Amino acid sequence: MDADVVIAGAGPTGAMLACELRLAGVDVMVVDQLAERTGESRAGGMHARTLEVLDQRGILDRFLEVGELQPVGHFSGLVLDFDGFESRHPHPLMLLQSAFERLLDEWAEELGVRVRWSAEVSGISQDRDGVTVELRTAETESATLRARYIVGCDGGRSTVRKLADIPFPGTPATMTAMLGDVEFTALPEEYIPMRRCPGGHFSVIAFEPGWYRVFTSEYDYVADPNEPATFEQLRESLVRLAGTDWGMHSPRWVSRFGDAARQASRYREGRVLLAGDAAHIHYPAGGQGLNIGVQDAVNLGWKLASVVHGQAPESLLDSYHTERHPVAERVLHNTRAQAALARPGPQTDALRDVFSSLIAFDEVNRYLASMVTALDIRYPVDCDHPLAGRRVPDADLKTPDGATRVYELLHAARPVLLDLRGSAEVAAAVEGWADRVDLVEAQSDDDSWPVPGVGEIPAPAALLLRPDGHVAWAAAVGGVPDTSALRASLAAWFGPALRHG
């Protein structure tokens, strides 16, 4: 084998997945058709759940030092307030994708991730033992890699998805949007939020001193997706919408896209898996695209590593589709709604007025903000505790070794059985999984924990945490913990117990 896992695509999703696999000791090779990083800014920020994921790995400070926290977000240009959210990191972090990729590259290098540039996947064949990946490379006309699995993180036009013959159903584009990083000579203000016009809408945002991001959307016109986007097209689009280009010049990058929304019918075909834009595309309303891709990677990484190491059966990989497909389905749904809510016309004007009044209600604001930030995700698990399936709150803890936080226990990307009541039954239940699951005895500083969408709940007696920070099993305070259910959960997520003697 040339690698345990080949990842096609070195963007945010592929890079994050590679790091997750390396944390688990998996030999991974990333291949990308580009010759190097382009430096294109692309996505512009991260929401709360992605910031929490980076905190769980102990690398969040690297991103906070470079990005800028924002007080509010939006739903189709209507302001969402994130104050008071049940998270240590409730506010969006403005950080360009190019900077995000640079920081991930540094972490990947520290972890020993191998990256092969100028290598485009051109063929895939599977057998019972692995997958053979054919590449077109700059050095030779073709090359091959042999691996246990391949993950397509190669974008909306994914070659891996097409080679695996995975359908990509959805809705076609109904409008054309353009994005560019430019300079201005006569812009009257530093920030123009989404401004609706008879033909669409536009916005201008100052990302860094001296240059701006211009975003235009024109409805009922669909450009040829194969035609290269140009600066002149962006300038003309802004003039049509705003009536001026404010002396726009010196473009760094220009791109074009639409509101097509498509999703892979399945995220796994044997030894081929999909993540990020290869699995789902949508209109980039609310800045959810980069975030959902990173969260795909964190959900898949520990499962794939467990299967590669022979600790869990291949069927564990099916839970990746079961859990993440509905998440993307909901993102496609809400971005379709946001695109419709931005459409020009008096009917939509009235709808936006009503919607704006509704968002003023705290319950509506929190519902939409929880959805956009992905803080309210709950995966299906066989446990009825209110925390089961949800991301774990980052509670303050006291351990025999000193004060810590729940997320600090997840830095190694290993499962954690957190015993908050010193239960001998809980400690005994995990003995058969001691090679895979870390037992931590601690005390919570708080009697209650906040849960998005639920409110305050009593601090649990014990928790089984997956490496992605979601709760696989939990026990309430009072009574005897159901250790048979705990053992069943340990076996379901982390494979059979070791037999001694």
TrEMBL record:
Domain FAD-binding: 2-334
This protein's UniProt keywords: FAD, Flavoprotein
Keyword Flavoprotein (UniProt): yes
SUPFAM superfamilies registered for this protein in UniProt: FAD/NAD(P)-binding domain (SSF51905)
Cofactor: FAD
MF-aspect GO terms: FAD binding; oxidoreductase activity, acting on paired donors, with incorporation or reduction of molecular oxygen, NAD(P)H as one donor, and incorporation of one atom of oxygen
PANTHER family, alphabetized: BINDING MONOOXYGENASE, PUTATIVE (JCVI)-RELATED, TRK SYSTEM POTASSIUM UPTAKE PROTEIN
Protein name per UniProt: FAD-binding domain-containing protein
